[in-house]
Design a protein that fits this description.
Elements (H helix, E strand, L loop, with lengths): L5 E5 L4 H12 L3 E6 L15 E5 L5 H11 L3 E4 L6 H6 L1 H22 L4 E7 L24 H20 L2 E7 L2 E2 L8 H13 L6 E4 L5 E2 L2 E2 H14 L5 E4 L5 E2 H11 L5 E4 L11 E2 L4 H7 L7 H15 L2
Helix pairs in contact: 1-7, 2-4, 4-5, 6-8, 6-10, 8-10
């Protein structure tokens, strides 16, 4: 079995990373993961024995080079990041350091190995930021007007990916994922915190009240399992240096997402606004145009949104005792 492909994932213990690891194992790819000594393993507990782990830090360029040189992967999936928009308001410099400096360290490590590695970097629809009404659905050519430190950090990583391809021919594919969700989604994200609160109410762990932030935003949600499938297809079929939106092309109003989850609930729940959950500036509408990616790869989302939300709620029901 010497001809098995090898993939290295940064952020393997995270939400998307764990789903990607599952997919690659199914596809008979050898999976290697970079993790920090303090990483929580709960998302990959069930497949831990099938993965080879290396300890490394994005902020330690030498540790990254050592791992890449040892593994000699065919693919690298760069998913590690400070990925919560809200936290980026609280600690903008940390967000920029991890997401920008960390990515540069990774790109430098890849460049210095001189290996022909195909690299997917998880950029973000948040980079589009302030989208004008006549700019929906959002194409890759849309102006980038980031509205959070997180979005600025992702934009910087995105353009560094372009620069490393142009300057050094590092084979970087820039996927701009729109919102993706499903089982294991962090509880700091709107739809996941709704699902968690519903599960806690059903178990009698909290009063039947759900606290919410801005319910008027519209988001383009892809199931995480469809998203990681797109990442895997991207390293096989997409052009280096290019950017690709990955999304469904359909918008869901956050209020409708909440109502859908409540419709699955076994108990009656009251909804209350929580000022703590409001952001200094929020992107109102994010609906993407995925035609460039679909044309290049033939990918299309397969899991209906209702199923995604059901699976997310069931994930929390199993997790809360």
């Amino acid at each position: 079995m010497r001809n098995k492909k090898k993939a290295l994932i940064t952020g393997i213990t995270g939400f998307a990373g764990s789903h990607l690891a599952e997919l690659l194992l199914e596809k008979n790819v050898e999976v290697y993961g970079i993790r920090r000594w303090r990483s929580k393993d709960e998302n990959i507990e069930h497949i831990k024995n099938e993965i080879s782990f290396y300890e490394a830090e994005l902020l330690d360029a030498h540790s990254l080079y050592t791992v890449i040189d040892k593994v000699k992967p065919h693919y690298i999936f760069h998913l590690a990041a400070q990925s919560f928009v809200q936290s980026s308001w609280a600690s903008p410099s940390n967000t920029l350091e991890v997401n920008v400096t960390g990515s540069v360290n990774l790109f430098e490590a890849i460049r210095n190995t001189n290996l022909p590695i195909r690299v997917q970097i998880a950029c973000s629809s948040e980079e589009y930021g302030k989208v004008l009404p006549d700019e929906v659905p959002i194409k890759e050519t849309n102006p980038l007007r980031p509205l959070s430190p997180y979005a600025v950090s992702k934009l910087a990583m995105d353009y560094l990916g372009y620069q490393y391809w142009e300057s050094y021919k590092v084979q970087i594919i820039r996927t701009r994922g729109f919102n993706h969700t499903g089982p294991r989604r962090g509880e700091v994200f709107a739809e996941s915190t709704f699902a968690k609160q519903i599960a806690e109410i059903e178990k009698g762990k909290r009063k039947p009240i759900i606290y919410v932030g801005n319910l008027d935003s519209i988001r383009d949600y892809t199931d995480v399992r469809d998203m990681v499938r797109a990442y895997y297809i991207a390293v096989q079929k997409c052009d280096s240096g290019q950017e690709y939106n990955i999304c469904t092309g359909e918008g869901q109003k956050i209020k409708d997402v909440l109502d859908l989850l409540l419709s699955f609930s076994t108990v009656k729940v009251e909804v209350k606004k929580d000022p703590e959950r409001m952001r200094p500036s929020d992107v109102q509408v994010l609906i993407g145009d995925n035609s460039k990616f679909v044309k290049k790869t033939g990918w299309k989302p397969e899991i209906p949104f209702e199923q995604t939300m059901r699976d997310l709620l069931n994930y929390w029901r199993e997790k809360i005792h």
